[in-house]
Amino acid sequence: MTRWSVRVDPAWSLQAWRERARLGLRHRVAPEQLDWLQDEESSLLDAPSLAGAPGPADAGATIGVPKAFVELAATCLCHRDPQRLSLLYRMLWRIAGGERGLLTNPADPDVLRAMALAQAVRRDSHKMKAFVRFREVPGEDDAFIAWFEPDHHIVDRVAPFFARRFAGMRWAILTPYRSASWDGQALAFGPGATQADAPVEDAREELWRTYYANIFNPARLNTKMMQQEMPARYWKHLPEATLLPALVRDAGDRVQEMHDREALAPQRRIPTRTIPLRGPATATGDALDALREAAAGCRRCPLWEPATQTVFGEGPRDAQVMLVGEQPGDTEDLSGHPFVGPAGQLLNRALAELGIDRSTLYLTNAVKHFRYERRGKKRIHSKPQVTHINACRPWLMAEIEQVSPKVIVCLGASAARAVFGSSFHLGRDRGQWHTLDDGTRGFATVHPSWVLRQPTGAAQEDAYRLLLGDLSTLAERSSSDTQHGVT
Ligand code: SF4
């Protein structure tokens, strides 16, 4: 049996692997006859290079494979496992030999292995998106460098995400095997680097740590999930990691403090006198401030009475994107600000992952008062009824009229009903773009609190991915239209 060798360079390149694989198929070289080499590897059996072999009889023949296989191969090739090259060729050989439905057999050992490799690459890509931290380059304006150590060859795969997310600044991501840089116009790739090539810390990290310590919610602490989401090997990339041991250690005491606080009666901030709903046309001064002031005294439905205060929308009054949730939660009711509780933190995480700057968004709710049931000391969220949504709708419509966003994203069925009407069905219409009568575009997705209500582990991760996938259309839109105020 004649043996041949082929070299893939760079080892994660689909194009390079595909050219070699085509060569193998056209020469009719069976998988067991082919040594796949990468980097500086040499053939153990000293097999000659297939590239130097005489031209095959069917050099012009085309080889068609399912698109799903090409996508799977592109992902698998980013894995560090050296066996992936021969694994993919073996699968290609089988598909070309007539097993067109190979990928639909999840029990096949080759398919199983390829799926596992692809999953590991996807997970590593997700971690890179979440844990890369840029540091300012001393002495240069608006130039940043990040150091990251991925498990797999994912820099080329993930770099376009950072180009979209940080399109307006110059940056470089250095890794041990490869570097990527963006000059504001184009991506470029180069050789690997060392951690010493990246700045150690910049002035903004203290600010970031202060912010992180403030948003850390000890009541939501789940160390097992935290370790899954943020494995210790990534901590060295994260400025906030130095805070985590103390935050975790003190979490129990802080939760006890929160419980003690819950026993106190909330500080009510509802004016004793009813202020009538005033539309923007009659509002004096800044119409949005006037609306906020008027809503503070609203009694259009009974929800005002047990609540602490009205939680009105917040954000730039010329925001291009408005996010509409269902109603304030316990934390929002006490603080008076929308999306600052656990669901808000999950939303922050999703926005950060997608490169969407929360401060450019206008955030509000379909219903402005917290509806809850009291169980002992706790106030448990209770879904607003249609009558509450309808009663509160004029406030939302007035906010939309004043802010005049280009895009409205509804989080959850209640918000979707308030914006798109009673015929909207979240299960059926989720993620689809709609146009309102005034031309405003929008879509609905799940509410972050729905994600948090899923069982922990894979189900919650899947739910989070669903939310992220829907919101990613905003990030994509921003990359094609930076005027939307989404970075
Ligand atoms: S929920 Fe809305 S309609 Fe009902 S009292 Fe509060 S602000 Fe008014």
How would you explain this protein's 3D organization?
It is a single chain. With 487 residues, this protein is an alpha/beta fold. The protein folds into four domains: 122 residues, no CATH class; 66 residues, no CATH class; 49 residues, no CATH class; 198 residues, Uracil-DNA Glycosylase, subunit E. The strands form four sheets. Strands 3-4-5-6-7 form a five-stranded mixed beta sheet, with helices on one face. It has a five-stranded mixed beta sheet with strand order 9-8-12-14-13, with helices on both faces. A hairpin with a 3-residue loop joins strand 5 and strand 6. Helix 3 crosses helix 4 and helix 11 packs across helix 16. The longest helix has 23 residues. It is elongated and about 85 Å long. The termini are far apart. 33% of the residues are buried.
Q: Return the average pLDDT rounded to an integer.
A: 83
Low-confidence stretches: 270-285, 479-487
Structural class: alpha/beta
Q: What is the fold-level CATH name, i.e. the topology of the largest domain?
A: Uracil-DNA Glycosylase, subunit E
Q: State the end-to-end distance.
A: 58 Å
Query: What would CATH call the class of the largest domain?
Result: Alpha Beta
Going by CATH, the architecture of the largest domain would be: 3-Layer(aba) Sandwich
Say how many strands there are.
14
With helices defined by DSSP (H or I, 4 residues minimum), what is the helix count?
A: 16
- Percentage of residues in DSSP E strands: 5-15%
Outline the biggest β-sheet.
5 strands, mixed
Please state the overall shape, judged from the principal axes of the Cα atoms.
elongated
Q: What's the structural domain tally?
A: 4
Element order: H for helix, E for strand:
EHEHHHEEHEEEHHHHEHHEEEHEHHEEHH
The amount of helix comes to 40-55%
* Structural Rg: 27 Å
